Amino acid sequence: MGEGAEEYPDMFNYEATKNTKDLLAQIRHWAVTYVRPHARFVDDNYALPDQATIDAIAAKSPIAHSPIDFWSSGPAVRGRENDADYVKSLNGGRSVLGMMATEAVMAGDLWGLQTLPGDNMGEVAVRNLGNEQQIHKWADGIRRGEYKRVAMGMTEVHCGLDLSQIKTTAVKQGDKWILNGAKAYISHAAYADYIVVLAQTEPGSGFKGARCFIVDRHDEGLEVTVPSYEKLGARYYNQAAVAFNDIVLDEDRLLNGGSFKKFAQVQAATRPFCGLQAIGIASTMLDYAVDWVNAHDRPWASGRRQRFDELVEDSRNAIAKARRMTLHAGWVHDQGRADNILGQRAKGYSTIISEAVAFKAMQLMGPAAWSKDHLMEKWYRDIKFNDMMGGTRNLHRIAVARDQYGPDVQ
Fold this sequence. Notes:
Strand order of the largest sheet: 1-4-5-8
CATH class of the largest domain: Mainly Alpha
Distance between the termini: 18 Å
GO molecular function: acyl-CoA dehydrogenase activity
Cofactor: FAD
Mean pLDDT: 87
Largest sheet: 4 strands, mixed
Radius of gyration: 21 Å
Low-confidence stretches: 1-9
Number of helices: 13
Structural class: alpha+beta
Number of domains: 3
Number of strands: 8
CATH topology of the largest domain: Butyryl-CoA Dehydrogenase, subunit A, domain 3
Order of helices and strands: HHHHHHHHEEEEEEEEHHHHH
CATH superfamily of the largest domain: Butyryl-CoA Dehydrogenase, subunit A, domain 3
Family: Belongs to the acyl-CoA dehydrogenase family.
CATH architecture of the largest domain: Up-down Bundle
Protein name: Acyl-CoA/acyl-ACP dehydrogenase
Keywords: FAD, Flavoprotein, Oxidoreductase
Strand content: 5-15%
Shape: globular
């Protein structure tokens, strides 16, 4: 297993407490009731609902901020924020609970996460790499409502997640940093209040010189070069390309609380959440298909009902295995360390299992699943797109294989 993973055997308590089950049920009810009705709109329009609608939906949520922030701030259950005994009664309370809550949101639709403050790797990067003043201004500013959207600028046209190859540079001139370069396929970049940009401070040094900088929306030299990409799934949030043209940044825009290795822990901590998103979508699709089939009375040929039930049971068992593997990565994080290989294993393999279950759910439902009369085809595109967020399955599998068998694995 990955560095440090052997210190944390699979011993976390997966059995949810009553209060945990109740909270997750409330989140699912909120997601189905208030989030799902807008799922087709956000997909067709490549846009979120208007801000008033988002605010109204968020106000009805049982939790006040994104599940990804449970690790740093605990579960913000409305009306129970300061109830220490209640928080202790919830499984995990941090990443584990946040991941279970993420899966619950998927009962409505993936876009539901965007209604809640947080849910962004940029904020997580600030909290992991920033100093006290930076965290208060930029990360806590999201909680205070001063910032609505944050972007994380890593990917460039010539490289995906091989971030040792980035060409965006930050050059020190006196007490300022001069930022130049470009990023592509960046979520929320066209309208984010600020972008956390990964740049090279020592060209040619690979990971050694990679550092994160905060670029404000109003900084002179920030240019949106591609306002929006058309894409397969997760269309609810915009992805854009941006350029940085001699942007002058003060020293306090550098997130200098650690090396690239520490930044990698940001990804290690967030990848399991991507895994639970895929698991949640697949589980929702399976439930939807089963309910639809059961709602349509039909004569069953000999043995076909039994085979249907067997396929459903096999799919639920596969989801359960993926869920446990992914929650384990979150549990390790809760013990004080975000293990990179566990995070990549959780994301890489849970998406494979989830996509297979999603496709099986489509088959169980038949031709209706591929029509726009149902959300099944939309969810299937979302789950395939989810495979690319935070790195593709092949990238993760290569990392896991190299950890197991050596660096020469291709």
